[in-house]
Structure formats: structure tokens, C-alpha cells
Amino acid sequence: MTTVTSPLAGRVIGLAAVPDPVFSGAMVGPGTAIDPVLEPTVAVAPVDGIVVSLHPHAFVVVDGEGHGVLTHLGIDTVQLGGEGFEVLINKGDTVRRGDPVVRWDPAAVVAAGKSPVCPVVALEATAESLVDVSADVDVKSGDTLFSWT
């Protein structure tokens, strides 16, 4: 079983509340989403593993069981061209849960007219394979979001 932890502090709102049909419809995969605290922060790795995809606005870490976890920092933030995001590691790096990945400012995302909501998605999973999915709670970076069986 893989425990997926929060990459940042905020309020867990669930995927259905994400203002993007690809995420809210769980087309990318099941999971949850966080409405982050609106202050400069660092998004951290939600699992131990290897960074297989890395962009200023999103990253994927694959754990030892082959479970890929996508963290997407805000909605439509790819349109910002990396502005306001600082990548702190490299694609291919091995990370431990809680290691810094991207420094960003959710308030700057809001100021740019984008949603700061952050989906955390279990790639290539089924909804039934996730247990104890958090919803409607405040989390700190590192708090458990869900377990993947």
C-alpha cells in the first residue's frame, strides 16, 4: 500500500470541486485536491520515488510499487510559462516524501487570473483502489491525503 501525503498546506476540497472538467471528472485518475494557503510556499514530494515528469506547474513521482502520483499546482497554470514557479530538483531525481520540488506563490497564480487549486492524482488507478481519501479538512504539508492499495 502506498500512502500519499499532501504536497502543501491548505483545505482538501476533493476532485469534484476542481474548476477543470479533466480533473473534476477524474479523467486523469482518482485522487483529491487542495485549495492552498495563499502565501509563498514549496510543494513537496507526496511519496518516496523517482521524479518521472517535471514542469514548473506540475510533477509526477513514481514510487517503488510503480504508483505514479501527479501534483498539479493550480489550474491552467501551464499558461503562465513557468512565471512565479521555481523548480528545485531535476527530472530523474530520487526523492523522499516531503522533499522540496517546486517553490511557488498561490496568491500570484490568483493575481494572474488562474485557480490555485492543486489536484493530487493517482495515475492509472481506479477509484476503488484508493482508501481513506481526505475531504473537507485542513491539511499541513505531509499530512495523509489517501492510501493506494
UniProtKB/TrEMBL annotation:
Predominant place of localization: cytoplasm
Keywords for the protein's UniProt record, in alphabetical order: Kinase, Phosphotransferase system, Pyruvate, Sugar transport, Transferase, Transport
Record-linked PROSITE patterns: PTS_EIIA_TYPE_1
Domain PTS EIIA type-1: 20-124
Location(s), subcellular: Cytoplasm
Gene3D superfamilies named among the record's database cross-references: Glucose Permease (Domain IIA) (2.70.70.10)
Top-rank lineage group of the source organism: Bacteria
Keyword Cytoplasm: no
GO annotation, cellular component aspect: cytoplasm
Identification of the protein by name: Phosphoenolpyruvate-dependent sugar phosphotransferase
Membrane-spanning segments: none
Keyword Transferase attached: yes
Listed GO biological process terms: phosphoenolpyruvate-dependent sugar phosphotransferase system
SUPFAM superfamilies recorded: Duplicated hybrid motif (SSF51261)
Naturally occurring in which organism (per UniProt): Streptomyces bingchenggensis (strain BCW-1)
GO MF, one example: kinase activity
